[in-house]
Specification:
This protein has 550 residues and is mainly alpha-helical. A hairpin with a 6-residue loop joins strand 5 and strand 6.
Length: 550
């Protein structure tokens, strides 16, 4: 129903009847369905009392001449006396026949033509994302569509919007502990919960009790709201979140949005809450959740958050299933997290002088290490297994790390040129000792021309570079010595050929950077300078000549 009344205005000069429109506009509180001070919900276009939320004054009709004329909008954003829309300096405009909206300090000023072209009213209109630069200025008729509720068409849509009881319900938004009355319709309750939380800054989990789990999986915005309340809310509010999660645990564990709620309970909940949630996860099946794309994140967060007693009990669930988890795209992350967390507890106990406690913790993880050592070559050359092997030599205690390193060095020649195995060998060079590096270096230089061949290989060249970076002085000198040998086929120095190779040139750069000062490094530089003219012809050797030899 149209909400305007026709005004007949008689012109003194011409005696023509001009159609003018008077529109009574509700405030933003009315649009949100806020109760007024008389405890009655604001009805469209009849605000008789200031709104409780915004403290607005009653509204008066706004003369809106020439409604419907081309270029003149049918909508208005609010009354000029509204405290949000206070007057400002009127802009100078020559556009009398059209609305002109220059930007001024983050607001729009709208100029509307009146009976006399020399007169005009200037209203300050709100903009949610007011542009601050001149490039965003626009002139001419305003856009009719907007995402903001304050730009609704005031013909029929505002009346329907404000009078739609199902949109807002009958709750009091001004109350911090107000809760959402459920209708029994799941989708309707979720929609009302989202609407309520967005409009009520004081909303808590108690406000949407009964639909917490369903709303969390239905909408990202309210999921973040629930996570914030679990993080910042009171103990009672966190308990309500836990109870809601336990009632829908199967759904939340395997849901992209819902799993985040469980992770936050492990992060910000009390020790009692964590134990209660962990006990419920056992019923759901720890192994199955560990192989789920979303469930594995919940298990990882649990491993990081629970104490060592609960952790050892949790890890025992993976016995006889280690290899299956390692080969799984999601389960391998759980095994990595087990190695990191339990090793941390063991090292903490060792540093605190509790050697028996550290040894006991290592024993609880020994079955994982045993499976890794027994299948070291296949795991190191596996897409997911190589990650677990790297974590074991990076975080484990010395005894367990040495066992894995010994297994790696025993078969490193099969890993050096592998797509995934080369990363394991690199990690062994970084974290291992000179004994392990000697074994790897022996593989790199086992025969004449072997280092030359491996340096030109995509994956093995990374191992050579890592050895030049982390090897001892003698180990690095030995590599440089191999680079100075002549190629068996061409008789040219291997370093000259490698400098012109698209892959091996990186080994030469690393050798110049990392080789220890001495005769070997000087011989390498002299050989490169002697062939400077030839190297400049290669697009790969130009950098070495210009940057390293200048």
């Amino acid at each position: 129903m149209a909400t305007s009344e026709r005004l007949n205005m008689q012109s003194d000069e011409q005696g023509d009847e001009l159609n003018m429109t008077a529109i009574t506009v509700p405030c933003q509180g009315c649009l949100a369905g806020v109760q007024c001070l008389n405890n009655q919900k604001c009805q469209p276009f009849c605000c008789s009392y200031p709104c409780q939320l915004y403290g607005h004054q009653p509204h008066a009709a706004i003369p809106y001449p020439y409604a419907g004329r081309p270029g003149i909008p049918q909508t208005h954003y609010g009354p000029p006396h509204h405290p949000y829309y206070e007057f400002g300096p009127p802009p100078q405009s020559q556009f009398i026949g059209y609305q002109h909206q220059p930007h001024y300090q983050g607001y729009h000023y709208a100029q509307y033509p009146l009976m006399d072209q020399n007169e005009s009213h200037h209203y300050r209109l709100p903009t949610l994302n007011a542009p601050s630069n001149r490039a965003n200025r626009h002139q001419g008729p305003p856009r009719r569509k907007s995402k903001s509720n304050c730009s609704l068409n005031y013909d029929n849509s505002v009346a329907a919007y404000c009078s739609d009881e199902s949109r807002f319900g009958s709750f009091d938004m001004g109350s911090e502990n107000s809760s959402l009355g459920l209708s029994g319709n799941s989708s309707e309750d979720i929609r009302r919960a989202i609407s309520f939380v967005k409009r009520n800054p004081n909303a808590t989990l108690f406000s949407i009790e009964g639909v917490i789990s369903e709303a969390a999986t239905a909408n990202d915005w309210i999921r973040r709201f629930i996570q914030d309340r679990i993080k910042l809310g009171s103990h009672q509010e966190k308990r309500l979140g836990l109870n809601a999660a336990l009632s829908s645990l199967e759904m939340l564990c395997t849901d992209e949005k819902g799993s985040g709620i469980l992770q936050d309970i492990f992060t910000y909940g009390t020790a009692e809450m964590k134990k209660e949630l962990l006990a419920a996860l056992y019923d759901e099946g720890i192994l199955a959740l560990s192989m789920n794309i979303h469930g594995c994140r919940v298990i990882q967060k649990a491993i990081r958050s629970i104490d060592q007693d609960d952790l050892t009990k949790l890890i025992a669930e993976f016995r006889e299933h280690v290899l299956a988890l390692i080969h799984d795209s999601h389960g391998n992350h759980v095994i990595q997290r087990c190695i990191q967390s339990l090793s941390y507890f063991a090292k903490t106990a060792e540093n605190g002088g509790d050697h028996d406690g550290a040894s006991n913790l290592m024993d609880h993880m020994q079955f994982i290490i045993d499976d890794i050592v027994a299948n070291i070559q296949s795991l190191s050359c596996h897409r997911y297994g190589c990650r677990v092997v790297q974590r074991s030599i990076e975080f484990c205690m010395e005894k367990q790390r040495s066992a894995v390193l010994e297994a790696i060095t025993a078969c490193n020649e099969h890993m050096v040129e592998d797509l995934y195995g080369n990363y394991v060998v690199q990690q062994a060079i970084v974290t291992g000792g000179n004994v392990h590096r000697d074994s790897i270096l022996k593989t790199l230089t086992k025969e004449d021309g072997c280092l030359f061949h491996l340096s030109k290989q995509k994956y093995a060249s990374n191992v050579v570079e890592k050895m030049l970076q982390y090897g001892s002085v003698d180990q690095r000198n030995l590599i440089v010595k191999e680079l100075l040998k002549a190629d068996a086929k061409s008789g040219v120095c291997a370093a000259i050929i490698m400098a012109q190779d698209p892959i091996a040139n990186y080994v030469i750069k690393k050798a110049i950077e990392s080789a220890p000062e001495g005769d070997q490094k000087q011989n390498l530089l002299q050989e490169l300078r002697r062939n400077r003219d030839e190297l400049l012809k290669s697009q790969y050797a130009k950098y070495i000549v210009n940057k390293e030899l200048s």
